From TrEMBL:
Record carries keyword Transmembrane: yes
Provenance organism: Coilia grayii
Protein name per its UniProtKB record: Proteolipid protein 2
Protein role: May play a role in cell differentiation in the intestinal epithelium.
Top-level lineage group: Eukaryota
PANTHER family associated with the record: MARVEL-CONTAINING POTENTIAL LIPID RAFT-ASSOCIATED PROTEIN, PROTEOLIPID PROTEIN 2
Location of the MARVEL domain: 12-129
Subcellular location: Membrane
Topology class, membrane: Multi-pass membrane protein
Amino acid sequence: MDAPEMAQGKEYLMTQKGMAMTGEVVLCLLALICKAATSGCFILVPIVEMTLGLFMLIVFSMGLDKKFLEVHWLWSDFFRTLTACPVILITSIVCLIHWDSAAVLFEIFAIFAGVLFGYDAWLVFTTLKDKRSSSGSGVIII
C-alpha cells in the first residue's frame, strides 16, 4: 500500500462514519472477549458483526468502494447496520434477563454497540437520502 492510500485511510477514519465503524468493531471485540470469559450467551452475534464491520471498514478506508462498482457499498453497509442494531440489542437484553453479576458490564458493551450500529445506520441513511435528492431523478446514483 503506497502513501496516498495510507493517507486516504487515515482521513476516512477521522470522519464521523469512520469513527462510528471503528467504535463498532472495538465494542464488538470487547463484548466478544467478555462474553467468552463469562457466560457465552449468543457469542456468535458479536463475532459476525465485528467481522462484517471490519470488512466494511477496510473497504471504505482503502477506497475499494470506488474501484468495485458492481456492489452498491452504501446499501450493503446500510443493511448491515440496520440488521445489526436490533439483533445486538435484543440478544443483549435477553442475556441481561438471565444475568449473573459478572456479565452485566459485558452486556452493557454490547448494548452500546447496538446503539452505535443504530447511529451508523442513521448516518448511512442520511447519506443515501442526500445522494438521492442531489441526483434529482429519484434514483440513487453513487
